[in-house]
C-alpha cells in the first residue's frame, strides 16, 4: 500500500488558499478613475452637421465606366504522365504497379535502356490536364504511394 501523499495535499491547499486570498483582495480594491481614457458624453447637439452633397465623386464617375481587358490564351502543355518510380529490378517495379493498382489506377511498367543499364519505370497516364494528374497523385498519396511525380510527356 502506498503512503498518503501529504506533500502534494499541502502544496495544493496552499495554492488554493493563495488564489482565494488573491481574488478576495482584487474584489476589495476600489476602482481608480483612469486618467488616460476620458469619459465621453455624446449629445445630439455635439455632432457635426450632415453634409449637403456627397463628398465623393468617384462613385458617379465609375457607374458608367467600362473596362477593356485583353485575355491571352494559354498553351496546353499536355499530355502529362505520372512516374511512380524507376527501378533496376522488374520485381520491384511490379510491386509498385501492384500498389498503384490497389489504389484503383491502371499503370504500366516500361523498359528503359540507358547508358547505366536497363531500368523499369512505372507510369500512369497520359493525362490531358495537369489538374487531373494532380488529383490522382493526391489520391495516391492518401493511399501511401508517395513516390509519384508528374511530367510533360515527350
Features of this protein?
4 helices, alpha+beta, 4-stranded antiparallel β-sheet, flat, 154 residues, 36% helix
Question: Short summary of the structure?
Answer:
With 154 residues, this protein is of the alpha+beta class. 36% of the residues lie in helices and 19% in strands.
Mind explaining what this structure looks like?
The protein is an alpha+beta fold and 154 residues long. Helix content is 36%, strand content 19%. It contains 4 helices and 4 strands. The longest helix has 23 residues, at 6-28. The protein is flat and about 90 Å long.
Shape: flat
Mean pLDDT: 85
Oligomer: single chain
Low-confidence segments: none
Distance from N terminus to C terminus (CA atoms, Å) equals: 76 Å
Helix-strand sequence: HHEHEEHE
How many E strands?
Answer: 4
* Backbone structural class: alpha+beta
The strands making up the biggest β-sheet line up spatially as: 2-3-1-4
Helix content: 25-40%
Amino acid at each position: 500500500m502506498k503512503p498518503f501523499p501529504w506533500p502534494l495535499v499541502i502544496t495544493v491547499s496552499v495554492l488554493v488558499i493563495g488564489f482565494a486570498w488573491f481574488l478576495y483582495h482584487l474584489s476589495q480594491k476600489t476602482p481608480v478613475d483612469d486618467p488616460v481614457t476620458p469619459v465621453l458624453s455624446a449629445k445630439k447637439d455635439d455632432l457635426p452637421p450632415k453634409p449637403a452633397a456627397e463628398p465623393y465623386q468617384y462613385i458617379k464617375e465609375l457607374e458608367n465606366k467600362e473596362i477593356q481587358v485583353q485575355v491571352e490564351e494559354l498553351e496546353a502543355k499536355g499530355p502529362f504522365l505520372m512516374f511512380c518510380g524507376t527501378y533496376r529490378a522488374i520485381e520491384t517495379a511490379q510491386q509498385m504497379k501492384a500498389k498503384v493498382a490497389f489504389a484503383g489506377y491502371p499503370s504500366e511498367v516500361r523498359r528503359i535502356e540507358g547508358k547505366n543499364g536497363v531500368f523499369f519505370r512505372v507510369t500512369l497516364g497520359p493525362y490531358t490536364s495537369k489538374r487531373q494528374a494532380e488529383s490522382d497523385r493526391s489520391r495516391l498519396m492518401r493511399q501511401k504511394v508517395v513516390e509519384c511525380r508528374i511530367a510533360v510527356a515527350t
